[in-house]
């Protein structure tokens, strides 16, 4: 942690958000608010969601943002890391999607690499393509 950039009060206001889930419907199913949950103080100010960016003060990662998002009652439960590669100017004059390597940690392990590739044909048109590998959630055995 010694190389983590120490954010200023202004950084905290610009780079981080936090909140608490409220009641509502998701896919037609009703959900109660955090403050209505059993054993939760109705006046609670405890955050149930946080998102932000942090920076590492080292030669290798200077200026590279690391983003995080965590919370309760999100649409999907899981842990993954997205590595978004630096955009470079296209020599073909078109704007390209960023190349992204996603490493899935749970509930199933795997990876996904989204990158720009040439479309089949005589023209040199680029289009996003994705290479995916995920372990089968039903294939559970003894893991070291």
UniProtKB/TrEMBL annotation:
It holds the Pfam family G6PD_C. One of its GO terms (biological process) is glucose metabolic process. Residues 2-139 form the Glucose-6-phosphate dehydrogenase C-terminal domain. InterPro entries: G6P_DH, G6P_DH_C. Pathway: Carbohydrate degradation. One of its GO terms (molecular function) is glucose-6-phosphate dehydrogenase activity. GO terms for cellular component: cytosol. It comes from the Bacteria. Keywords: Carbohydrate metabolism, NADP, Oxidoreductase. The keyword Oxidoreductase applies. PANTHER family: GLUCOSE-6-PHOSPHATE 1-DEHYDROGENASE, GLUCOSE-6-PHOSPHATE 1-DEHYDROGENASE G6PD. This is Glutamate dehydrogenase. The lineage of its organism: Bacteria, Bacillati, Bacillota, Bacilli, Lactobacillales.
